[in-house]
Amino acid sequence: MAMASIEIKLPSLARDYVMDDTTEVMRNALLLYPSIANNTISYGRAAELLGMRKMELIELYGRLGIPYLDMTDEEFEEEIQMVKKLVDAKK
User: CA-CA distances (angstroms) from residue 40 to 14, 36, 44, 46?
Assistant: First the structure.
């Protein structure tokens, strides 16, 4: 995968916490998250850009406390009912 470099300005004392190899994937995923949140790119596209599977990216965000589904309980229940109606309609 071709890589590009970008310059990031941050307090010098923070450098050691964001520049090691173990945080690189997490940092890059977090840099892409705003584009996912505003629907510029999908989770799948972000995962592709990061060189991982979509489920791996979803799990990474989950470990960071970023939910894949950002629905209220009521919205989630509406989705379930809609799926049930669609399934019943195909019978």
Answer: 29, 6, 12, 10
Number of domains in the chain: 1
Task: Compute CA distances 66 → 1, 7, 79, whole Å.
Answer: 26, 25, 20
Q: What single DSSP character describes residue 14?
A: G
Q: What is the pLDDT of residues 60-76, one digit of tens each?
A: 999 999 998 878 889 88
Q: Which domain holds residue 43?
A: 19-90
Examine residue 8 and state whether it is found in any structural domain, yes or no. no
Q: What is this structure's pTM?
A: 0.69
SS3 breakdown of the chain: % helix, strand, coil, rounded to 5?
65, 0, 35
Q: How far apart are CA 21 and CA 18, in angstroms?
A: 9
